[in-house]
Write a sequence for this structure.
């Protein structure tokens, strides 16, 4: 069993007690009742021509082990905001990544407290999504987008998650790793596609995966390069192959001078 298969099996067991039928009308009513979150999709196409950086709050991972076990999600979010992040990715998986939904809620609350001095950033709920009930959780917590890992899901599950996200007023980031994943994502109408440069079966990272896949995207699809981006040189490689945005976690969490690294990634040419 590879690691992604293991994680998905655990996630299905974890949410099983919560699973129930979720009607599109319920999601639409939820969306109408709650304030609209900032647009994740719009944030990934900066008007100033810089690369958008989706900065990730990540305490640990199966590949890297402990990264910043005691990191405060709201404090890190505010630092990312001040450094020029376009959006955030907040990991809400506890067993493998050390995050919770409370992290997402606390980040949204921190942005509200500082709204007078800085615009709240859109937030991707980074988790292993398998059922629309998780979309309800994301919308109630204040997320702007959910993650759909194409390789990990059946087509029916993808359809259900995408429909739920649309009804709830959320964007969907489709994550792919190869050509069959790309074909499936496009078949489901994906508008934002992220290439995970890390093979989630063996956790090896290679930026050449973005360089191979992103040039195959239709022009109207927003391209995100994810994982394995540590330097401005890496960012420039992603930009050169057509990436509009980068998703960066570990290197920003570990950086001695995070604002300087953020600036170099955004400005990479």
């Amino acid at each position: 069993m590879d690691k992604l298969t293991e994680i998905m099996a655990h996630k299905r067991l974890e949410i099983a007690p919560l699973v129930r039928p979720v009607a599109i009308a319920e999601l639409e009513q939820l969306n109408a009742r709650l304030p609209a979150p900032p647009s994740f999709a719009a944030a990934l196409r900066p008007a100033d021509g810089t690369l958008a950086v989706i900065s990730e709050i990540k305490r640990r991972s199966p590949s890297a082990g402990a990264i910043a076990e005691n990191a405060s999600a709201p404090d890190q979010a505010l630092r990312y905001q001040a450094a020029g992040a376009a959006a955030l990715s907040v990991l809400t998986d506890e067993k493998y990544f050390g995050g919770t939904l409370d992290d997402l809620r606390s980040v949204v609350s921190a942005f509200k407290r500082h709204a007078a001095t800085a615009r709240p950033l859109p937030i991707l709920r980074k988790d292993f999504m398998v059922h629309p009930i998780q979309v309800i959780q994301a919308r109630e917590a204040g997320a702007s987008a959910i993650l759909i890992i194409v390789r990990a899901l059946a087509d029916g599950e993808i359809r259900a998650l995408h429909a739920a996200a649309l009804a709830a007023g959320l964007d969907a980031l489709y994550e792919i790793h190869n050509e069959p994943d790309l074909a499936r994502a496009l078949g489901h109408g994906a508008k934002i596609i992220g290439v995970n440069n890390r093979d989630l079966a063996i956790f090896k990272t290679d930026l050449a995966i973005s360089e191979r896949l992103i040039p195959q995207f239709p022009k109207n699809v927003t391209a995100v390069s994810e994982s394995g981006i540590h330097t401005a040189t890496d960012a420039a490689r992603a930009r050169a192959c057509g990436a509009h945005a980068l998703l960066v976690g570990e290197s920003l969490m570990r950086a001695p001078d995070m604002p300087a690294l953020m600036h170099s990634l955004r400005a990479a040419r």
